[in-house]
Amino acid sequence: MNLLKKPLILAMTATLLLAGCGQNSTPEKAASTTAAPVEQKDVLAIVNGDTITVEEFNAIKLQLPPQAQASDEQVLNQLIELKALAQKAEADGLAKEAAIQSEIERAKESILANHLVKRMMKDMKFTDEQLKKEYDELVTKLPKKQEMKAAHILVENEEQAKEIQKKVNEGGDFAELAKANSIDPGSKDQGGDLGWFEAGMMVPEFSAAAAALKPGETTKEPVKSQFGWHIIKLEETRDVPPPAFEAVKPQVENMMQQKAVEKLVNDTRAAAKVEIKKPAEPAAKPAEAAPAAAPAATK
Question: Model-level pTM?
Answer without folding.
Answer: 0.53
